[in-house]
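Following up on my earlier thread - several people asked me to post the actual chain instead of describing it. Fair enough. Here it is, all 104 residues.
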Amino acid sequence: MIIGIFRSRLREGATRYPATAERMEALAAEQPGFLGIKSFQAEDGERVSLFSFESLAALEAWRDHPEHRDAQRLGQNEFYASYSIQLCEPIREARFAAPPRGRG
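Reply from S.P.:
Thanks for posting it. Predicted structure:
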């Protein structure tokens, strides 16, 4: 599994960003090996998206998708004041889920 951390700040007036981001999320979900994405925005305006793919090859295929490449160019030319991307592979995983509480 590959996990990506995409941190960004939008430029003022990036009015086409929401529609483009929505389209990219829908398109990514159709890609083989895509596992999911969650996005958040901090009070200071920084945005963080966490995404995951089954493999580096699946992520690279998404990176190189023609419509995604067009969106990347828009991002650099219109949407983002700054961004960074980090790719990671989990070295350990642990999970916990509390059991359902009984009624009563």
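The radius of gyration is 16 Å. That should answer part of your original question.
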